[in-house]
Amino acid sequence: MPRKKKAAGIGEFGGAPEVADWGGSLTSMPLYWMFEATQASLGPARALADAGKLYFKNPVNPASHTEWGRKVGAMCEVFERATRRYGKPEFGIESVLWRGERVAVSQEVVWRRPFCDLIRFNRALRPGVAKQPKLLIVAPMSGHYATLLRGTVEAMLPDHEVYITDWTDARLVPLSEGSFDLDDYIDYLISIFHFMRGECHVMAVCQPAVPVLAAVARMEAEGDPYSPRSMTLMGGPIDTRENPTAVNQVAIDRGTEWFQRNVVTMVPWPHPGAMRQVYPGFLQLTGFVSMNFDRHVSAHKEFFQHLVDGDGDGAEKHREFYDEYLAVMDLTAEFYLQTVDTVFVRQALPKGEMTHRGKPVDCSKIKSCALMTVEGERDDISGVGQTSAAHTLCTGLSDDKRVHYLQERVGHYGVFNGSRFRAEIAPRIRDFIRWNEPAAQKAPAPAKRPAESGGVSSAEETAAGPLVTGSATKTQVRAKPSAPKAAASKPSRKPAARGGKASAPADDLTRITGVGPKIQSQLNEAGIFHFWQIAKLSAAEIRALEERFSPPGRITRDKWVEQAERLTHAD
């Protein structure tokens, strides 16, 4: 029987109707109890399967050397893994390669609240090493644990002092600790920025893009001196009206009330968070799996075959992936429903209707915190254009404080993990952070990109390295430039005469993605003023030029030669 009725947590965002304070309907209320009962009833069978796996994999057992025995052992392991409840994984980052040497890494909780720990990754660097930028990675609170960003942390550790938000499973937080909603999430972020005294750069992966942007907007509107130096938003749903995906459409079609009635339930005893209203992790996992059900079935068939064939590497890759993928956490009902309503149903942020503690979230107030947005070309969760919409909202930022980058041929998870993230995206984020460090030597205002490029601005460079490159031709960023068009650098010497017309006016080399005014000046000093000169660079000349830029590799990585060839023919 439902308790006394009260206004739902989303009331301040849209006036949801009154509902029973345990959350869902009579259908959803017993879901968690049924799940726990199922887990308990499968316990004996799971234990028997685990024993069978050990028995049929023991080399002393003759049956383990037969195909039949291997199949029985494989079936036991598949059953045990498919029915177990996966606990929170470990980051497991014990060392990192730093400047050619392997250094030890340890974890330390440096800030704590009931629903979040802030973890710092300490590297055992040599004494006297210069301080590196502080990077706060805000992990998504959308079902999986922060360990999903293990690869992200590893990629950023060599060049940054890395911190990450480690959100707590709601079923482990006693009801006495109070509620946790979207306003509380933003409060936590502001508190962390204060703890770090503003001497940090923040990276928001997927879901946190909205609260991070809102937190920075509120801080700058209040003149808070502890606002971060830069923010990188990656695959986040800033404006879900842009290129809506199936995930966005489900939220719009069903509405907040449907989720409130059908997926909100209560944590059962004996969990510490008993009686707390939550969106349970097992329901989220059901949604994750159902989106690609055939793929998961095929993966488990392949896992079974790997076990039978004795393919240890293939089986271990499967275990590593699913140990992470199947580990899920509960979300508080108030946070989940507010997020659905604010971000996906009402699109309150891009419409200028979002508030925090009753005060408007106005992104145009952001003037000092630089903005970088990153999207994946094949992202089927946050469509192309949803994250870059942040540039439209942040009208107070100058062009040299904004960058957008679209990574080709990657989906949602490829935006923050995998080989392309390490090789293409992470270097650009490092350059962006370096550019926005106080010690960076700023270049003049950048030249406005040609209208046909559709980019926010050309990549800016510092003496230590470039800001960032962008593949902005793939998506239209609607930010209005606030700086006047800079004049092209005047030649300081005659260009090398290797074909082409040396006497022709110098080209605007900043039209090449990855070249800003500083790099253009360095190219001019090397006698390069035209696209055709870059197009005809030899391997030896490229190596010589690379020595002028730090970190090296950008000429090849950003494909300057190929770009220059296209621009030469276009002009």
From TrEMBL:
UniProt feature coiled coil, ranges: none
Pfam families: PHB_depo_C
Occurrences of domain PHB de-polymerase C-terminal (ranges): 235-435
Ranges of compositional bias, category Low complexity: 439-448, 478-490
Residues covered by region (Disordered): 439-512
Entry-linked InterPro entries: AB_hydrolase_fold, PHA/PHB_synthase, PHB_depo_C, PHB_depoly_PhaZ
Family matches, as NCBIfam families: PHB_depoly_PhaZ
PANTHER family: BLR0908 PROTEIN, POLY(3-HYDROXYALKANOATE) POLYMERASE SUBUNIT PHAC
This protein's name: Polyhydroxyalkanoate depolymerase
Taxonomic path: Bacteria, Pseudomonadati, Pseudomonadota, Alphaproteobacteria, Hyphomicrobiales
